[in-house]
What does this fold into?
Amino acid sequence: MGKVYLVGAGPGDPELLTVKAYKLIQKADVILYDRLINSEILFLAKPTCELIYVGKEDGKHILEQDKINFLLYDYAKNNDIVVRLKGGDPFVFGRGGEEAQFLAEKGIPFEIVPGITSAISVPAYAGVPVTHRGIASSFAVITGHGHKGQFPDINWEALAGIDTLVFLMGVANRQKIAENLIKAGRNPDEPVIFIEKGTTKEQKSIVSTLKEVAEGKTTVYSPAIFLIGKVVNLKDKTNWFEKYLEEVEI
Ligand code: SAH
It folds into this structure.
């Protein structure tokens, strides 16, 4: 029996892999990877490594979770190093916990390799810190997508009391999310930033207000995160990566 590594691949920029993830990808006999994994990262695998795509497309599972679990079991039986590669961090909306539970129940040896989550790193690449002295002393990371595609069950009043709100998988439901936050007491003029394809060459950010988002006035393409809070205003001074991309393009 080999070992399964549940590995976070970071948000996109291959240089944001951890050293541990980098080494494991190079040594892996099999890599089972998700949709948002940058192909440059997969090129690090050895030529004999078996690469298996098990991602989801538009909410539809290419492979159901049970089948992924079964594959992990099967590959672990016949290989030494099985890497289950997930975008960002495996324990932030990545179902890593479920896979770890399954492996534990089946007695398959495993390790968790945390990754850099998009929730914090993508805003950083847009020049937005999730906390800032005197401006934001708390932040929350929330899914904008409920179980089986339903609207998520969220305590909006409790959420409204947190300074910075970061929504993952929230693009499709952005209008409803903004409406709920305004109803729960957030200032309609509060700034909102959407960041598409963060930390990659195609990164793009769009700044708006809660009111405009609630009125359906924003156009955004997935994958994107969506952050609400006064820290968005800091971007004017500290935006760096998108400026750098502009300079490179010239
Ligand atoms: N485990 C991942 C999140 C998985 S949920 C993590 O820790 O980052 C997938 C959602 O993450 C996407 O719908 C999107 O909201 C967000 N996301 C992941 N990578 C992103 C990127 N490079 N740019 C913008 N959003 C990203």
Q: What stands out?
A: Residues 11-12, 36, 86-89, 92-94, 117-119, 122, 168-169, 195, 197-199, 222-225 surround S-adenosyl-L-homocysteine (CB under 6 Å). The CA atoms of residues 2 and 76 lie 5 Å apart. The mean pLDDT is 94. The chain has ten helices and twelve strands.
